[in-house]
Amino acid sequence: MKTQISLILSITMTLIAVSASAASPPAAFGPSNPLYVPSTLPYQAPPFDRIKDADYQPAIEAGMAQQLKEIKAITDNPAAPTFDNTLVALEKSGSLLDRASAAFYGVSQANTNDVLQQAKADLAPKNAAHEDAIYLNEKLFARISAVYKQRASLKLDAESLRLLKFTYDEFVHRGANLSRADKATLKKLNTEAATLSNAFTNKILAATKEGAYTTEDRAALAGLTDAQLSAAAGAAKERNSTGYVLPLQNTTQQPDLASLSVRETRTALLRNSWDRAEKSDANDTRDTIARLAQLRAQRAKLLGFPNHAAWKLEDQMAKTPETALKFVDALVPMATAKAAAEGKEIQAVIDSQHGGFTLGPQDWNYYSEQVRAAKYALNGAEVKQYFELNRVLEDGVFYAAHQLYGISFKERKDIPVYQSDVRVFDVLDTDGKPMALFYCDYFKRDNKNGGAWMSEFVTQSKLLGRLPVVYNVANLQKPAPGEAALISFDDVTTMFHEFGHALHGMFSNAKYPSLAGTQTPRDFVEFPSQFNEHWALYPEVFKNYAKHYKTGEPMPPEMVEKIKRSKNFDEGYGLTELLAAAELDMQWHTLSAGEPLQNPDDFEKMALARTHLEVRAVPPRYRSSYFSHIWSGDGYSAGYYAYLWTEMLADDAYAWFEEHGGLTRANGDRFRSMILSQGNTHDLEKLYADWRGREPNVDAMIRLRGLKETAGTQ
Ligand SMILES: [Zn+2]
Q1: Per-residue pLDDT tens over the stretch 110-156
Q2: What angle do CA 304, 305, 306 make, to 5 degrees?
Q3: 184: Cβ–Cβ under 8 A, 6 or more apart, which residues?
Q4: Which residue among the candidates 70, 159, 498, 647 is catalytic per the annotation?
Q5: 138 is an active site residue
Q6: How many degrees, rounded to 5, is the angle at CA 622 between CA 20 and CA 581?
Q7: Largest Cα–Cα separation, the chain
């Protein structure tokens, strides 16, 4: 049983607009639906050549009904509850729902259309109700409890015992121990929360679209390249208007701010971004988030917790908001000190050009580019010529995995894909045996969500006899036909990052699907991915892929040095804006149920001041009113800190490799067997400490982030 689709979101997640209108009612579900029976393709890969858009929703709804029937068979079983007839039976339930949902959410994020968007909107409340129907099923919980109480005498293996405890805890966590009256209240709160989250998502999509900067005046856009200008003109045309449009991205900072030389334009664009969801119109999100925060606090209280964060973190690696906050708080002085030092360097450039103003957030990226150019003389266009996408993939990403883990990759063309740019690779284990299927879908499309992510079409499970089918999605610029795909070093890093998630899914060696692969807490799941980023700059790997796309010459050593050194400039800014977002998230979610409805603007100001993150030139990466990670669904609420927490783990882990000879098979095999193959089959704190030989600490992160001069230890 896997009731949740875990989509591993990148830090810059964006969602695309729901523009669905009234659709025809879903078709009936029967054998003509390609999702009706398990796929007969290799690895049970989804038969995308046969699935039509209209097939998903009926399959998912039938899958829900089927799973409830399977659960009824468990609860009606006259035999006394046992591990097999209850826990294992539950793990085996929901196979139709799993395969239909996995294919549907994969496609609807990466290649959507009105039919799929409408299905997603229809399915959101149904999914919430389906989960409640399982987790609040009294007969089912009674059986699980009965088995749980006998656990000491059952002689279960470690993974089975973990499954028992995990399942029991998850039911309690979601309210199984509540009285009937409280359960009814909980269901109401869950439904309202799902509705509010959906409303937030729709409002923010519209607000972000409407917040675009528009102008007829080409001079206002001075500094943009011809390509950027034609993109802006194209965006205007798409909206049936004239002139130029700079669409907003979901973060506070906007990419064009690095190029725009007219300060008034920068100021206007940043203001559009900052105020996008606070215009007191239909797309204003403030009432929605204020109520959502209050509702989450009320739900936490009902479940026996002081606040939403305490409830959410119960099953995370950090375990309590206090632990997470202690970690975040400790980074604040170092980050803000580094940002202040960077700000001084930038102000000096502004002054030397007789700018006559004080550095603001709208200026940061424009002038930091100049500092970077002056200090490191790094030319982005030149650098890109050494990063050709296919070479990065095969001679970089795959090469590093081969050197570390001995696995190999073979492209295959016989697996149907949902879009013609998608590529599929067989992943072969050290002994040459099939291990996993890997899809990559790297190019940007208008009907794809922003950012990059990993997820699975099939989750590995020994119980179900399934090998993993894993995919990576990104938004890299697609080249013109016949041209090479040249990407930035940031894009290279993204590819290594997402592939780190993919390895976590592909190496999974779990019996139970609920504990497999990336089915780990938020504050662990970004560890393998951030860890994998480190190999992008590892000399032996780097020199293998960073070759000029025409001549094949290796990147000149001076350029490599510059990339390395310039990486740390701006780290102060980047870390401070992240910390501000993490603190905002935590402050919202440590409100108690008794607090009145908050005014989001006042609350945000106070929260930033209280955490020493009210830095004029460095606003939070997301303002509360457009912080999709925490309001668009529950997944990342009280969980934004996890990006930094897992960075600590990743850097600490990489330091272990450095201490033990770096990129070797021995090191890789040990990491695979003790971490990457383990999924959530063991307590993760212990798993990590056993592998590392000690608890994780923040020293390596401080060193690698270039924060060392002001560093202390945790
Ligand atoms: Zn990630």
Answers
A1: 999 999 989 988 998 898 889 989 998 999 999 999 999 999 999 99
A2: 130
A3: none
A4: 498
A5: no
A6: 130
A7: 84
